[in-house]
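Milestone 3.1: sequence recovery, worked example.
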């Protein structure tokens, strides 16, 4: 049972997140200068969505790679959920909305607050809004990638690779669990795998045991076959 204090914190974070997002969206709307601006706004939004995938991948890689679950401060709060996810990948399908989105909102809210306080440009706002919304939804996308059944619109988005595709994500849950860390849409996995070194991505600290390894349930591997290229 999760404490009332945690639920209040997560609920407050989600409320603050959407309040700041609304302020940014209103500001962007007021600065609308006509149809000529639309391509730049769409390009910025696509970039923000892609950067969110990179952010999810780097966070995932860091938490799978460094420290221990018992490390003071960071261990119980940040490291343990990622290691537990490898022990039981389907556990997150049993988590509620606030548990899946609260921490993300808590992490992104300061960035949104700074953007509200310090205006830049409508194009920057469009990119930031897309980035923030993508990170807000990342754990939902991740949950659906581990779910045996999803709503039809979600299934369509997965098949079109607009959100995390289960078959592509299953690569991360097959030993040695050292590739495919991005969990927003998976678009940036190829680039991030090359940067992190793929098989050599995990840098082991002295005396740190290998994080637990888990494999997705077999039905997830067959649910969406990755298209041939």
């Amino acid at each position: 049972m999760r404490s009332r204090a945690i639920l209040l914190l997560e609920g407050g974070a989600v409320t603050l997140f959407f309040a700041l997002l609304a302020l940014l969206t209103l500001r962007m709307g007021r600065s609308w200068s006509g149809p000529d601006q639309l391509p730049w706004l769409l390009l910025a939004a696509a970039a923000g969505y892609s950067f969110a995938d990179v952010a999810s991948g780097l966070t995932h890689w860091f938490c799978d790679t460094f420290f221990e679950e018992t490390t003071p401060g960071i261990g119980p709060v940040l490291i343990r959920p990622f290691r537990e996810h490898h022990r039981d990948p389907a556990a997150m399908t049993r988590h509620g909305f606030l548990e899946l989105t609260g921490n993300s909102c808590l992490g992104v809210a300061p960035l949104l607050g700074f953007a509200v306080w310090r205006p830049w440009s409508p194009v920057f706002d469009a990119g930031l809004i897309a980035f923030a919304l993508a990170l807000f939804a990342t754990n939902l996308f991740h949950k659906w990638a581990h779910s045996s059944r999803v709503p039809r619109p979600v299934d369509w988005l997965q098949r079109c690779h607009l959100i995390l595709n289960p078959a592509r994500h299953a690569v991360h849950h097959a030993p040695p669990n050292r590739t495919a860390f991005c969990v927003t849409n998976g678009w940036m996995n190829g680039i991030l795998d090359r940067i992190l070194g793929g098989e050599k991505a995990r840098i082991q600290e002295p005396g740190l045991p290998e994080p637990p390894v888990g494999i997705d349930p077999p039905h997830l591997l067959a649910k969406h076959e990755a298209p041939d290229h």
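Confidence is low (pLDDT under 50) at residues 200-229. The chain has nine helices and no strands.
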